[in-house]
Amino acid sequence: MSEKPMKSWPERTPETAAYWAGCARHELLIQRCLVCGLHQFYPRLLCTACSARTLEWVRAAGRGVIKSFTIVRRAVSEAYAPDVPYVVALIELEEGPTMMSNVVGCDVGEVRIGLPVQVVFDDWSKDVSIPKFTPADRPVA
After folding, report:
1. Alpha-carbon distance 86 to 88, whole Å?
2. Facing residues of 56 across strands?
3. Alpha-carbon distance 138 to 39, whole Å?
4. CA-based max dimension of the chain
5. Are the CB atoms for 95 and 51 separated by under 8 Å?
6. Is the terminal CB of the chain with fewer CB neighbours within 10 Å at N or C?
7. Coil, strand or helix: which one is 132?
8. Are 30 and 95 in contact, with CB atoms under 8 Å apart?
9. With contact defined as beta carbons under 8 Å apart, do 6 and 25 qualify?
10. Stretch 87-109: mean pLDDT, rounded?
11. What letter does residue 5 receive in the DSSP assignment?
12. What are 135's strand-pairing partners?
């Protein structure tokens, strides 16, 4: 008997531990530089604008707009086959950074560049929640 294929789980590193802990609490955290004020994502050790090492974690509003997207109609592996078709999008957060995520809670045909979205969390386990986005006009559970 074969095992059910598994999706790729995020790897926690010292740089990303606070981010994943926030996601587990359903909080979208991003970094902000204490020197220049830049918000950045993905987590890094240095500010991408001024190279300062004084970064803090702040809770993002969880809202943004779709900058670009693609509809995946052919799964990358058996583990993702039940999800097709699904949307992978670049989301520009209100705070400025762009993050890649899935758009859920709507038909893939509704997704468009400029669509306002809000974060939702997909709980994979008690310790792992994945941030995804849904159209901003949809109620968040």
Report:
1. 7
2. 32
3. 26
4. 57
5. no
6. N
7. strand
8. yes
9. no
10. 98
11. P
12. 117
For residues 138 and 105, what is the distance between their CA atoms, to the nearest angstrom?
A: 8
118: closest CA among 66, 64, 76? 64
Residue 137 has pLDDT above 50, yes or no: yes
pLDDT tens figures, 27-61: 999 999 999 999 999 999 999 999 999 999 999 99
Tokens of 114: 């400029």
- Residue type for 2, please? S
pLDDT of residue 141: 62
Work out the mean pLDDT of the chain and round it to a whole number: 94
Token pair for 32: 């902000």
Closest CA to 85 of 108, 113, 110: 108
Q: Give dist(CA 111, CA 136) in Å, integer.
A: 12
